[in-house]
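Limitations

Structures in this collection are predictions, not experimental determinations, and the ligand pose is part of the prediction. Treat each record accordingly. The example that follows, with coenzyme A as the small molecule, is included so readers can see exactly what is and is not provided: the inputs are given verbatim, and the output is the predicted complex.
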Amino acid sequence: MPTTAGTTAPPLFGLAEGVVLEYARLPVDGLPPLLREESRLMVGLPLARREDFRLGRAAAAKCLSVLGQRGPVLSEGRMPLFPQGVVGSISHRNGTAVCLAARSSDIRAAGVDIEIARSIPPRAARILCTERERAWLKQQPDPEQQLTALFSMKEAVYKAACGLRLAIRSFKELELPVDCYDGKVWDGIAVVHGVRLQTGGRPADRTVLTWAVARL
Ligand SMILES: CC(C)(COP(=O)(O)OP(=O)(O)OC[C@H]1O[C@@H](n2cnc3c(N)ncnc32)[C@H](O)[C@@H]1OP(=O)(O)O)[C@@H](O)C(=O)NCCC(=O)NCCS
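Predicted complex:
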Protein backbone atom coordinates (compact mmCIF):
# COMPACT_ATOMS: atom_id res chain seq x y z
CA MET A 1 0.00 0.00 0.00
CA PRO A 2 1.50 3.39 -0.85
CA THR A 3 1.85 5.15 2.43
CA THR A 4 2.15 8.76 3.43
CA ALA A 5 3.09 7.91 7.00
CA GLY A 6 5.67 5.53 8.34
CA THR A 7 4.93 2.24 9.95
CA THR A 8 4.82 3.53 13.50
CA ALA A 9 3.11 6.84 12.83
CA PRO A 10 -0.62 7.38 13.07
CA PRO A 11 -2.21 8.35 9.77
CA LEU A 12 -1.64 12.04 9.16
CA PHE A 13 -4.09 14.23 7.40
CA GLY A 14 -2.68 16.36 4.64
CA LEU A 15 0.80 14.90 4.29
CA ALA A 16 2.02 14.73 0.72
CA GLU A 17 2.35 11.36 -0.94
CA GLY A 18 5.74 9.82 -0.25
CA VAL A 19 6.35 11.71 2.99
CA VAL A 20 7.25 9.49 5.93
CA LEU A 21 6.85 10.40 9.58
CA GLU A 22 8.40 8.33 12.37
CA TYR A 23 8.76 8.67 16.13
CA ALA A 24 11.39 7.54 18.62
CA ARG A 25 10.71 7.59 22.33
CA LEU A 26 12.59 6.83 25.51
CA PRO A 27 13.81 4.35 26.60
CA VAL A 28 16.42 3.97 23.88
CA ASP A 29 16.44 0.15 24.15
CA GLY A 30 15.11 -1.28 20.94
CA LEU A 31 15.69 1.89 18.92
CA PRO A 32 17.94 1.79 15.83
CA PRO A 33 21.56 2.32 16.97
CA LEU A 34 23.49 5.43 16.02
CA LEU A 35 25.87 5.01 13.11
CA ARG A 36 29.56 5.64 13.76
CA GLU A 37 29.57 9.11 12.16
CA GLU A 38 26.47 10.07 14.17
CA SER A 39 28.09 8.88 17.42
CA ARG A 40 31.06 11.11 16.64
CA LEU A 41 28.74 14.08 16.21
CA MET A 42 26.94 13.27 19.45
CA VAL A 43 30.06 13.23 21.61
CA GLY A 44 30.79 16.77 20.43
CA LEU A 45 27.47 17.99 21.85
CA PRO A 46 26.76 19.29 25.36
CA LEU A 47 25.50 16.50 27.62
CA ALA A 48 22.03 18.04 27.80
CA ARG A 49 21.57 17.72 24.02
CA ARG A 50 22.85 14.18 23.57
CA GLU A 51 19.72 12.26 24.46
CA ASP A 52 17.61 14.39 22.10
CA PHE A 53 20.16 13.94 19.36
CA ARG A 54 20.14 10.18 19.94
CA LEU A 55 16.33 10.04 19.73
CA GLY A 56 16.18 12.29 16.67
CA ARG A 57 18.66 10.15 14.76
CA ALA A 58 16.72 7.02 15.76
CA ALA A 59 13.52 8.53 14.34
CA ALA A 60 15.47 9.50 11.21
CA ALA A 61 16.86 5.97 10.85
CA LYS A 62 13.30 4.64 10.94
CA CYS A 63 12.24 7.08 8.20
CA LEU A 64 15.25 6.14 6.08
CA SER A 65 14.45 2.48 6.49
CA VAL A 66 10.88 3.05 5.24
CA LEU A 67 12.35 4.94 2.26
CA GLY A 68 14.79 2.08 1.58
CA GLN A 69 17.78 4.24 2.51
CA ARG A 70 20.45 4.27 5.18
CA GLY A 71 22.14 7.04 7.17
CA PRO A 72 24.16 8.58 8.59
CA VAL A 73 22.20 11.76 9.12
CA LEU A 74 24.95 14.30 9.65
CA SER A 75 24.68 17.98 10.54
CA GLU A 76 25.39 21.14 8.60
CA GLY A 77 25.70 23.72 11.32
CA ARG A 78 22.64 22.79 13.36
CA MET A 79 20.64 21.62 10.34
CA PRO A 80 20.28 17.88 9.79
CA LEU A 81 22.00 16.65 6.66
CA PHE A 82 20.23 13.63 5.23
CA PRO A 83 21.88 11.21 2.79
CA GLN A 84 21.83 12.20 -0.85
CA GLY A 85 18.40 11.77 -2.38
CA VAL A 86 16.53 12.39 0.90
CA VAL A 87 15.28 15.55 2.58
CA GLY A 88 14.00 15.60 6.11
CA SER A 89 13.58 17.34 9.41
CA ILE A 90 13.81 16.44 13.09
CA SER A 91 12.21 17.71 16.29
CA HIS A 92 12.38 16.52 19.88
CA ARG A 93 10.62 17.36 23.10
CA ASN A 94 10.49 15.67 26.50
CA GLY A 95 11.79 12.24 25.55
CA THR A 96 10.06 12.02 22.18
CA ALA A 97 11.57 12.71 18.79
CA VAL A 98 9.90 12.90 15.43
CA CYS A 99 11.38 12.86 11.97
CA LEU A 100 9.67 13.70 8.70
CA ALA A 101 11.47 12.70 5.51
CA ALA A 102 10.91 12.01 1.84
CA ARG A 103 12.84 11.40 -1.34
CA SER A 104 14.16 14.59 -2.86
CA SER A 105 12.49 13.47 -6.08
CA ASP A 106 9.15 13.96 -4.26
CA ILE A 107 9.68 17.11 -2.18
CA ARG A 108 12.23 19.95 -2.00
CA ALA A 109 12.33 20.57 1.74
CA ALA A 110 10.58 19.63 4.95
CA GLY A 111 10.14 20.94 8.46
CA VAL A 112 8.62 19.24 11.47
CA ASP A 113 8.06 20.42 15.02
CA ILE A 114 6.62 19.13 18.27
CA GLU A 115 5.68 21.27 21.25
CA ILE A 116 4.07 20.65 24.60
CA ALA A 117 0.40 21.58 24.36
CA ARG A 118 -0.40 25.10 25.63
CA SER A 119 3.27 25.79 26.38
CA ILE A 120 3.42 29.21 24.71
CA PRO A 121 2.21 32.00 27.02
CA PRO A 122 -0.52 34.28 25.60
CA ARG A 123 1.71 37.37 25.88
CA ALA A 124 4.04 35.84 23.25
CA ALA A 125 1.36 36.34 20.58
CA ARG A 126 2.48 39.95 20.21
CA ILE A 127 5.95 38.95 19.03
CA LEU A 128 5.04 35.74 17.19
CA CYS A 129 1.83 36.49 15.34
CA THR A 130 0.56 38.78 12.61
CA GLU A 131 -2.46 40.98 13.31
CA ARG A 132 -4.66 38.61 11.32
CA GLU A 133 -3.46 35.62 13.35
CA ARG A 134 -4.05 37.49 16.61
CA ALA A 135 -7.58 38.42 15.56
CA TRP A 136 -8.21 34.75 14.73
CA LEU A 137 -6.77 33.60 18.06
CA LYS A 138 -9.22 35.85 19.93
CA GLN A 139 -12.12 33.95 18.36
CA GLN A 140 -10.79 30.52 19.31
CA PRO A 141 -12.30 28.49 22.16
CA ASP A 142 -8.79 27.39 23.23
CA PRO A 143 -6.46 30.25 22.21
CA GLU A 144 -3.45 28.99 24.19
CA GLN A 145 -3.58 25.69 22.37
CA GLN A 146 -3.88 27.41 19.01
CA LEU A 147 -1.09 29.87 19.81
CA THR A 148 1.18 26.91 20.52
CA ALA A 149 0.08 25.37 17.21
CA LEU A 150 0.84 28.61 15.34
CA PHE A 151 4.26 28.86 16.97
CA SER A 152 5.01 25.24 16.22
CA MET A 153 3.98 25.62 12.60
CA LYS A 154 6.20 28.68 12.27
CA GLU A 155 9.10 26.61 13.61
CA ALA A 156 8.30 23.88 11.05
CA VAL A 157 8.12 26.46 8.24
CA TYR A 158 11.38 27.99 9.50
CA LYS A 159 13.13 24.61 9.30
CA ALA A 160 11.80 23.93 5.79
CA ALA A 161 12.77 27.48 4.73
CA CYS A 162 16.32 26.89 6.02
CA GLY A 163 16.43 23.77 3.83
CA LEU A 164 15.49 25.99 0.89
CA ARG A 165 18.05 28.62 1.96
CA LEU A 166 15.25 31.14 2.42
CA ALA A 167 15.64 33.68 5.20
CA ILE A 168 12.77 34.35 7.60
CA ARG A 169 13.66 37.44 9.57
CA SER A 170 10.74 37.41 11.97
CA PHE A 171 7.91 35.04 12.85
CA LYS A 172 5.66 38.07 12.84
CA GLU A 173 6.24 38.47 9.10
CA LEU A 174 5.27 34.88 8.41
CA GLU A 175 1.51 34.63 7.90
CA LEU A 176 -0.05 31.21 8.36
CA PRO A 177 -3.32 30.07 6.75
CA VAL A 178 -5.46 30.27 9.90
CA ASP A 179 -8.65 29.76 7.93
CA CYS A 180 -7.42 26.25 7.13
CA TYR A 181 -8.01 24.93 10.64
CA ASP A 182 -11.17 22.87 10.89
CA GLY A 183 -11.20 22.47 14.68
CA LYS A 184 -9.07 19.31 14.61
CA VAL A 185 -6.31 19.59 12.06
CA TRP A 186 -4.50 22.21 10.03
CA ASP A 187 -4.02 21.85 6.32
CA GLY A 188 -3.16 24.92 4.29
CA ILE A 189 -0.56 26.75 2.24
CA ALA A 190 1.93 29.29 3.60
CA VAL A 191 3.91 31.39 1.14
CA VAL A 192 7.52 32.27 2.01
CA HIS A 193 9.36 34.51 -0.44
CA GLY A 194 7.04 33.28 -3.18
CA VAL A 195 7.56 29.59 -2.34
CA ARG A 196 4.42 27.63 -1.42
CA LEU A 197 4.73 25.40 1.60
CA GLN A 198 2.06 22.91 2.50
CA THR A 199 1.56 23.28 6.24
CA GLY A 200 -0.27 20.93 8.50
CA GLY A 201 -0.66 20.13 12.11
CA ARG A 202 -2.54 18.32 14.77
CA PRO A 203 -2.90 19.96 18.16
CA ALA A 204 -3.61 17.13 20.61
CA ASP A 205 -4.15 17.14 24.37
CA ARG A 206 -0.50 16.67 25.33
CA THR A 207 1.54 17.63 22.31
CA VAL A 208 1.21 19.65 19.17
CA LEU A 209 2.73 18.19 16.01
CA THR A 210 3.16 20.34 12.92
CA TRP A 211 4.92 20.11 9.59
CA ALA A 212 5.69 22.09 6.48
CA VAL A 213 6.60 20.65 3.11
CA ALA A 214 7.78 22.35 -0.08
CA ARG A 215 6.74 20.22 -3.02
CA LEU A 216 8.70 20.17 -6.25
C1 LIG B 1 16.41 25.88 15.03
C2 LIG B 1 15.12 25.77 15.79
C3 LIG B 1 13.97 25.76 14.77
C4 LIG B 1 15.11 24.46 16.58
O1 LIG B 1 13.89 24.32 17.24
P1 LIG B 1 13.83 23.81 18.76
O2 LIG B 1 12.40 23.95 19.19
O3 LIG B 1 14.88 24.48 19.55
O4 LIG B 1 14.20 22.30 18.72
P2 LIG B 1 13.54 21.06 17.96
O5 LIG B 1 13.76 19.89 18.82
O6 LIG B 1 12.17 21.33 17.46
O7 LIG B 1 14.48 20.95 16.67
C5 LIG B 1 15.82 20.62 16.81
C6 LIG B 1 16.27 20.02 15.51
O8 LIG B 1 16.04 20.96 14.47
C7 LIG B 1 17.02 20.78 13.48
N1 LIG B 1 17.54 22.09 13.18
C8 LIG B 1 18.33 22.88 13.93
N2 LIG B 1 18.55 24.04 13.31
C9 LIG B 1 17.90 23.97 12.13
C10 LIG B 1 17.74 24.87 11.04
N3 LIG B 1 18.31 26.09 11.03
N4 LIG B 1 17.01 24.48 10.00
C11 LIG B 1 16.44 23.28 9.96
N5 LIG B 1 16.52 22.38 10.97
C12 LIG B 1 17.25 22.75 12.04
C13 LIG B 1 18.07 19.82 14.00
O9 LIG B 1 17.87 18.56 13.39
C14 LIG B 1 17.75 19.75 15.48
O10 LIG B 1 17.96 18.49 16.04
P3 LIG B 1 19.44 17.86 16.21
O11 LIG B 1 20.29 18.95 16.78
O12 LIG B 1 19.23 16.69 17.12
O13 LIG B 1 19.87 17.47 14.82
C15 LIG B 1 14.93 26.96 16.78
O14 LIG B 1 15.89 26.88 17.78
C16 LIG B 1 15.03 28.30 16.08
O15 LIG B 1 16.10 28.87 15.94
N6 LIG B 1 13.89 28.82 15.64
C17 LIG B 1 13.84 30.09 14.94
C18 LIG B 1 13.52 31.14 15.93
C19 LIG B 1 13.66 32.48 15.32
O16 LIG B 1 14.78 32.95 15.17
N7 LIG B 1 12.54 33.10 14.96
C20 LIG B 1 12.51 34.41 14.46
C21 LIG B 1 12.96 34.63 13.07
S1 LIG B 1 12.90 33.23 12.12
